[in-house]
Amino acid sequence: MKKTIVILTHVTFDDSPYCKYVHSHAKALVEQGYHVIVLAVIHWLPILSNFQRYKQDFMKRIKNSDKKQIIDGVEVIYQKAYSFSNLWYDSAVNLNGILYYKSIKKTMEKIMQENEVVLIDAHTFKVEGYVAYCLKKKYANIKTTVTLHGTSFYRNLNTQNGIKQIKKVFQRVDYAICVSERIKKQINALGVENTKVVYNGINQYHLEAVDKEENRYNILTVAGFVRRKNIDLILKSVKIVLNKYKNVKLTIVGEGIERANLEKLVAELKMTENVIFMGEIPNHEVQKLMNENYLFILTSVAEGFGIVYPEAMRAGCITIGTKNEGIDGFLKDGENGFLVNPDVEEIAKLIKQIYEGKFDLEKMRGKAMEAVKELTWENNVKGYIEIFEDNDERKNK
Fold this sequence. Notes:
The protein is of the alpha/beta class and 397 residues long. The chain has 14 helices and 14 strands. It folds into two domains: 3-201 and 376-396, Rossmann fold (3-Layer(aba) Sandwich), CATH 3.40.50; 212-372, Glycogen Phosphorylase B (Rossmann fold, 3-Layer(aba) Sandwich), CATH 3.40.50. The strands form two sheets. Strands 3-4-2-1-5-6-7-8 form an eight-stranded mixed β-sheet, with helices on both faces.
């Protein structure tokens, strides 16, 4: 019987089987020879859903007969759980977590009876983390991890009830898997020491060789249109750069609630000839765009790591990220990219310095490409496998 890893996640309606990065992680575990079962919960309360435009198409695909599927070798079990979205999010009672746990409880009991489960791997903190806590209470001998990707963890850092829940969960589960050094430092500061940094992988699409200098004035950003991504700051910075470099073109990939405000800002800044909104496009097309652009910039905050940064680095973009955020440490200022504060003048100054030739960009580009070679999904899952293999080795000694 193959060793089985159970992954707890939720359907994000991101045009993937359930969640892009979690599925990539699951596929890599299958490639390492493990039986992987993903419990992909559909948070269900349509009135409060933020994903209506995806939900209808997705639910058509998941009929009653299709609730269990094999996708890329991964066994995926879809289940519904009522969710009250952001209502009572900061309450001392984790209602959504309780509802998730109840929805998968019987399924999990069956999985435990029929498989040799060696790891329960929860993504992300607030809901799935609570469920991992409940499962660890019930199955104390099974190694259990909760992966902190950023958003939910950061949100809980801002409330007393959130901090209490973080401490409660990690007093019981075996490891907090942190996708960046910054998250590790932040959770260590709460007294949680059972932590391990494991970087996400990136998709390694083939990229055609291009002459970057031909695209010298092409700038790209990729993000969801929410305020913390600071796309408005990028627009204002590029406006300043345009005073000197008239040929600059900014391409923006993404979608979200701030779209109308961003389009209005472009009009107010009189930049309609210099800004292109691409909307949401598949990941392989995003990487093709990265390959065709010279600069990549994203000065977001409350970012766990930010996969788009290493994807841009791999595509040969000179990459600009935010100081003291998740990418800081992997993206090294002045070495394999640049780090700035989310400040319009500072961003604009750096872009102009790049165009003025004040840095050895070829050397920087080479170091960036070298750094991202380690960000494979194979290396990602090895970090998890070490957790239960170490336990097995100790048992056999």
